Amino acid sequence: MREANLDGLGAAPRWIGMCLGAYSIADLLVLYFWSGAGQIFSMQASSDSISALPVTAMAAVNLFLCLVVLRGFPAGAPLRPAWMLATGAAAAQAVPGVMAQVLETDSLRTPLLTASGPIRLALLALALLPVLRILRGFGFWVRPSATDWAVSGIVCLFALCRFAEAGVASPAAGQTGLQHWISLAGLPFLCVLVLEAMLLRQSVVRMGNGPISKCWAALMGGIFLTGLAELAVWVVPHYSRVWPPALIEWLTRFPIAAVFALAPAYQVAAQRRATKPAASAPEELAAGVPALAR
Amino acid sequence: MHPSIATLVAFCDGEAGEDRSRRIARHLAKCETCRGRLRLIRSEKDGFSAGAVAQGVDTQQGLDEVLSAIANWRRSPSTAGASELRRRVRRHIETYFGFAALSVAERPGMRAEELPGRASEMLDVFLGPAAAEAVRDDALGGLACAGPEEGR
Q1: How far apart are the first and last CA of chain B?
Q2: How far apart are CA A191 and CA A152, in angstroms?
Q3: Do A210 and B130 touch (CB under 8 A)?
Q4: Which of the 8 DSSP states describes residue B2?
Q5: Is the CB of A84 inside 8 Å of chain B's CB atoms?
Q6: Of A43, A52, A257, B14, which is least packed with CB atoms within 10 Å of its CB?
Q7: A170 — phi, psi (to 5°)?
Q8: Has residue A17 got a pLDDT over 60?
Q9: Of A90, A155, A154, A162, nearest to A121 (Cα)?
Q10: If you average pLDDT over every residue of chain A, what do you get?
Q11: Is pLDDT above 60 for A175?
Q12: Using the 8-state DSSP alphabet, how is residue B110 labeled?
């Protein structure tokens, strides 16, 4: 088995994976002790302050890695627009996150964070369009299957339900209602993103498991997790008082940020693997194999 | 963990040993990637064997044909170089995209010499020009037939 190399940006996927693992274990432990303590502490009160910092840090890592990837795609490169939009999406999460840590007043912080979600989803939806076009050009794309349409349909149905619910509650909501509508603005983009992610999934399956495939698979995973988290935040509190929305958000926000950060991390890993000297290249699959088998 | 190509070749040749063969067979039963690799190895091996049989080396004429083929190969190392280039290109596609991408890159009916160009285009688009250039340099390094345009 190859030894794990944790030096340099090429090892970014491993670092992110380790952070995600450590955070998940810590989350589960906290959750275990919390339920053991009879849920006497309020998750609502602690969620923002506890989880915002790691999420912002991971978003900043995502932004940094996107910028590194972007440097590898000069003007005119077909994937440059996609990576520019992905960088914009990462910035839309990281910058408001940092500002929210700095700003003291909730009146500025909450709208900033609320508005960043739809902007990020819109930028990601736009970023995936050239990617899918290019994948199609190379023959990696196949027609959407019934499952793809079904999953997208479920997300669209969920969006409609959210809008209907907000429409009913809206007259009495006031300022909170406005913020709620801003946050709901991301749902149409989420519907588009899920359909794009389903198409991306088919392309990734046709590629295999190299770092470039993993890059797009990570983006796809981040989109699915975002959709699932949105769905869980809305559905679970309808059926269980034990799981308030803040708790679900607290559990899902960091993994989603980490999975999104894996996309540029794998791209950076692929670029580093290509440009590093041959002597330090990892053990090749075909090394020492008779010519017949190659 | 996937068996190495060398292990699969040994398995294919029946030289992997009893225990190891059983383990590999168990792994192959549940791993599509390794089944694909094994198919590729078998097809290459079959192609090689068919070529060898067709030569009919047990007659003087067959022996002359084999010797003539070897002489031709020696006179034109570019054929061996092109084959080596294709092998390297395949390895790079597998390294950066994945094994399944090989079947997309090598479209049915595509001429063998088109593969490096197509792979180069794929790497240019998905890795970026600088990284793709480095991969091209690696693929072309030490090849006798490697003209600058061949791998691009």
Answers
A1: 34
A2: 6
A3: no
A4: P
A5: no
A6: B14
A7: -60, -45
A8: yes
A9: A90
A10: 80
A11: no
A12: -
User: Euclidean distance between the first and final Cα of chain A, in Å?
Assistant: 21
Along chain B (152 residues), what's the average pLDDT of each consecutive run of 10 residues? 81 78 82 82 71 58 68 59 78 86 78 79 89 84 51 40
Could you give the C-alpha distances from A15 to A69, A220, A261, in angstroms and in order? Answer: 17, 20, 11
Domain boundaries defined on chain A: 9-32+48-274
Give pLDDT, residue A214. 93
Helices (H) and strands (E) in chain B, counts: 8, 0
The overall pTM is greater than 0.80: no
Chain B residues lying within 8 Å of A270, measured CB to CB: 96, 126-127, 131
Q: Token pair 């909170």 is at which residue?
A: A176
Q: Which of A24, A62, A4, A57 is closest to A263 using CA atoms?
A: A62
Name the residue among A138, A211, A278 with its Cβ closest to that of B104: A138
Cα separation, B120 vs B104, in Å, equals: 14
| Nearest Cα residue to B151 out of B124, B127, B119, B126 | B119
Phi, psi of A105 (to 5 degrees): -85, 135
A200 burial (CB, 10 Å; 0-12 / 13-18 / 19+) is: buried
pLDDT over 70 percentage in chain A: 79
Pick from A44-48, A88-92, A196-200, B15-19: least confident: A44-48
Distance from CA of A191 to the nearest CA of B (A): 26
The CA R_g of chain A, rounded to the nearest whole Å, is: 21
Contact A190, A155 (CB under 8 A): yes
ipTM greater than cut 0.90: no
Name the residue with tokens 């063969």. B21
Q: Rounded to an integer, what distance in angstroms lies between the CA atom of residue B13 and that of residue B45? A: 9
Cα–Cα distance measured from residue A132 to residue A219, given in angstroms and rounded to the nearest whole number: 13
